[in-house]
Amino acid sequence: MKWTGAHYTDKPTVEVRTWIDAPPERVWALVCDIGLMPGMSEELRSVEWLDGATGPAVGARFLGRSKHPAFGEWATTSYVIEYEPGRVFAWAVQDPAEPSAVWRFRLHTGGGGTELSQWMQMGPGRSGLSVAIDRMPEKEQKIVFVRMREFEHNMTVTLEHIKRLAEAR
């Protein structure tokens, strides 16, 4: 795990990695199936492609619905901003020019398996966390820290699910 940033304006990031004893094609198929993601997440409730898209491609959009005990329920539209089959799948949440978050899966192959990483950047665009920071600016660093730790935990769980599915086939 690698974590950076202390303030929202720092655009903090977190990255989690795992080694999967499975060929990259198998891992890639799981990473690109956004319909699997709600079953791997404590927050994400549903995901659906928009505009007739059936899978990732640069410019494709999808709607995600989430729920969190402190933030309630919300929906966001994400835009695929990077897509290299077998290697990288990334999306920006809300406005691609000023996203509230950017998420990325990256695969590296070798040694008879696949290294999978999931990375995310908070901000620079406003998000639900911005509202909490606006209400308690003196607690910004703690708010950001706690949320980044939640992301780290959820990403670790997601990668564990993908690893289990890929290695079971």
Automatic annotation (TrEMBL):
**Protein name in UniProt:** SRPBCC family protein
At the top level, the lineage of the source is Bacteria
What is the native source organism of this protein? Streptomyces guryensis
Q: Which InterPro entries does the annotation name?
A: Polyketide_cyclase/dehydratase, START-like_dom_sf
- One Pfam family per UniProt: Polyketide_cyc2
